[in-house]
Amino acid sequence: MASTIRVRATASGDTTEVQALIQHPMDSGFIKDAQGQIIPPHFIQQLTFEHNGKTVFLANWGAAVSKDPYVKFSFKGGAKGDDLKISWVDNKGANDSTTAKIG
Amino acid sequence: MRNMERNLVLAAVLLTIGAMPALAASEDDYKTALATAESAEKQADALRNKWTATEAQLAVAKKAAAGGDFDAAIAAAKDAEALAKASVFQATSERERWKDMEIR
Amino acid sequence: MRVRAIIFSAIAALASGALACIAASALAAPDKIDPVADAKAFQKYFTDKFPKVKYEDFVNGPYSMNEDMHRQWEEKEQFPPYEFALEAGKEMFSTPFKNGKTYADCFANGGIGIRQNYPYFDEKEGKVVTLELALNRCREANGEAPYSYVKDEMASLTAYMAFTSRGKPMDIKIPDDPRALEAYENGKRYFYTRRGQLNFSCATCHVQSPGERIRAEVLAPALGILNALPIYRSEWSGMGTTSRRFVTCNSQTRAVPLESQSDEYRDLEYYLSYVSNGLPISGPGARP
């Protein structure tokens, strides 16, 4: 099955810039469908980026983050060829993860 | 010219809303008012120029009538009629007016 | 111009009575339909109004109107939100129908790199055919149910086809056929006609007010406005086809929308695409 996570990490000197696009409905639980029924909440609760086993970015999300979230951040210490692991867990207990190489 | 026309339309709508009968209305009065409004909306439909506002007021009228409030239903039906007529006016006047906006 | 105004007043006076007469006189308008002159004037209007905008950039809508938005959009293009729809579209396009045929069998060049030729005027049918319409006809011809014109499946398909045409200049043809010229003129008339309780025409926003704001949104110029479709619209949290955009623009002016792919919408797409001839296809796109 295709991963829900697209990621691109680029090292420049001491800084690594990371961009990620995650496919997820991020339903807030406040929107009604065409029949007038509430669409139950379904959103990523925790998103983690790890480099060399150390967490470099941790997000605790709620209903306010929109569908297919896009994340961009930088961290110090990554180098070209290093592994970057991205994983998420949602409120239904589903999860996905992927590992990308820093370019 | 355009502003004046628009003000006339607005005035027509407002005047119609203002002219409400003082006596309690009957279901027959409502049916007449609704028929008039729906007939005007049919004209707008033929011109492919219905307004959502008109449709909304027709729904309000029907809902009020279903609840037995014929005064409110007639008021809404008359609003709908005015809106429908305004949309018909818009469609017919725009048949030539559109050229004023055209880039030449 | 003065003479025309007098004629208008006279016609307006007659308008209060016979509607049928109005229809007849509109078709018998004395002006000759000149799409080439129209397109030239149309493009000049926008390039004059926005001299600093690069010609090809007009297809980026509000991003060409606002520097800060342009910067954010450039960043977003590295990981565009339409990526998922585009991938889905590519897969859908190559998946055979139940009868074994594929979309490629319905289109020139297997459907690759041809989006810029749509819409076209079909002389046999005597009507404008849009890409969305052609896709559904392809489905029906092969025993498949048509897709909704405003939902994701259609958007995914047109996203993929637009992507294969990225960078190619819009290339709409108007054959020397009075019906084609009439369809073009109908589209033009629709574009400039005020509608809805808010009394806006497409031109009110996209010709008179590009670069300005309507509520919190920056308005796009009409030049090249269809080139980026289908779009991932953040406001919709999802993809939007050309049909969806026409329908929602109508309801936003408080006009009851027409049916997707109705004659008026097909003709409108024909006109708007033609006057943007030469500008690159940039779809699928992203918008706020």
The geometry of chain A reads as elongated
Provide a count of the helices of chain A: 0
Global structural class of chain C: mainly alpha
Number of domains of chain C: 2
Which bin fits the share of residues in helices of chain A?
under 10%
Strand content of chain C: 5-15%
Order of helices and strands of chain C: HHHHHEEHHHHEEEEHHE
Question: Which tags fit this structure?
Answer:
heterotrimer; A: 103 residues; mainly beta; Immunoglobulin-like; 4-stranded antiparallel sheet; 3-stranded antiparallel sheet; 0% helix; 51% strand; C: 288 residues; mainly alpha; Cytochrome Bc1 Complex, Chain D, domain 2; 2 domains; 3-stranded mixed sheet; 11 helices; 44% helix; globular
Description:
The complex is a heterotrimer of chains A (103), B (104) and C (288). Helices cover 0% and strands 51% of the residues of chain A. Chain A has 103 residues and is mainly β. Chain A has a single domain, classed as Sandwich (Immunoglobulin-like). In chain A, strands 4-3-6-7 form a four-stranded antiparallel sheet, with no helix packed on it. The two termini of chain A are 24 Å apart. Chain B has one domain. Chain B is built from four helices and no strands. In chain B, helix 2 runs antiparallel to helix 3 and helix 2 packs parallel to helix 4. The longest helix of chain B is centred in the C-terminal third of the chain and has 28 residues. The model of chain B has no long low-confidence stretch (mean pLDDT 89). Chain C is mainly alpha-helical and 288 residues long. Chains in contact: A-C, B-C. The interface between A and C is small, with 12 and 11 residues.
Please provide a brief summary of the model:
The complex is a heterotrimer of chains A (103), B (104) and C (288). Chain B is 77% helix and 0% strand.
